[in-house]
Structures
1.
Amino acid sequence: MTKYLHTMLRVSDPEATIAFFALLGLEEVRRFDNEAGRFTLIFLAAPGQEAVAEVELTHNWDPEDYDGGRNFGHLAYRVDDIYATCRRLMEAGVTINRPPHDGHMAFVRTPDGISIELLQDGRLPPEEPWASMPNVGSW
């Protein structure tokens, strides 16, 4: 089973973006600051839909231009078995851009280059060939 989790957008002004989404009825449901990575993740959802569909706002603390559509980040899905899902995609000719080295997260791209994050609920023990597979390009 696959479950839709969120859509990620990179933002330069988190408070202005939160205010914009508030006009649409979305509210902040949680926030994470990552000092080491120098970014903040802010999750928004419509009241009563927190477990159904979220928007993840990613604010990188260092200024960055988001031209060429780079402000759209990715769609995220939770999968039952990240290794089996990646194996199935690979057998169908899909490149695994960020293999599930950690048994938890992988990134692939659609034929049009849209990034898809796959997340395991919890972590699976490291498994070959995933544990030693190199990352391929950007996520």
2.
Amino acid sequence: MSYIIVGLGNPGEEYVNTRHNTGRMILDHIRQELDGADFEFDKKINALVSEVKVGKEKVTLVAPETFMNNSGKCVGQLVKTKKNAKLKLITADDLLVIYDDFQLPIGRMKISYNKSSGGHNGLESVIKAIKTEAFPRLRVGTAPATAKGDAKIPHGDDKILKFILSSFKPDEMKTIKKLGKRAAEGVQIFVKEGRDKATGVVNGMLKVQ
């Protein structure tokens, strides 16, 4: 069996430390934590790829080089559907998609399964490409927190766009790095013990400060 972990974001230097690139950032921290080789470009799927081992299982880390809204063009080539059922591809249950979520405060992350895109265009592109919502995804919070600890959510299309394309502050980048370490732990549980166990552990983690 093999697993694929996808980090959503946008290619290009101008997007490197932006909130909408959180999926790619976390993916790279996972690669480092699990001693993966440097990412290499795979022309066939138009993505940066690195392989790591979790126990005896092969795990492929994938960062699509398409822009966010077209993430499904890459991921659709990796997951088995009715159209490509004869190909030796993973099933949707062995896919984990990592992406930014401004409805969660920074320092929090959650695993969800079999849910809608919640308006996230990259995730929606993946859902359309593999023709199912039944796959695990790791939502990583990017919003500042209110006094009560909830996400301070931007409202209105213009404000949302401005927010997700804004860069993390230096202290927020430190938090993202810590989350990357936790995400690597979550990936190992996901591979070794399954989605339900990983969900319980990751969703029960305290907020990273």
3.
Amino acid sequence: MKRHLKVLCIAGCALFATQALAKVTVTEAWVRGTVATQKATGAFMKIRSTEDAKLVGAASPSASIVEVHEMTMKDNVMMMRAVDELPLPAGKTVELKPGGYHVMLIDLAKPLAAGDKVPVMLTIVGKDGKKSTLEVKAEVRAMGAPMKK
């Protein structure tokens, strides 16, 4: 009995330690599929941090260039630009979605078909200034597929 308690205690402590390190979570990650000659696409997801942090970069073996972008409307003109950082306020979900913030995958290594998985490594800076990397496996959705809610 004592041995089982000891094992449970150790397992509980390990679980707590894992949860304490998990400051940023990503859900609903997906990438828009491409056609044969298309060289760029977007990745979208929801990011939540338990403390103030910033998304400062991204990388993927599926593309030579990966940038965090913002899309805005100004005078009826859609504008897209790379951003150096995207704030991740503590306890708030930041949604990267079409028509807003997103991760741009440029100079794709190959076309992306529905059902493929695209690894995307996000670089996060915590409020303490320390950088960490979080790998996300984003599912490719068909070009015309409706957004899931």
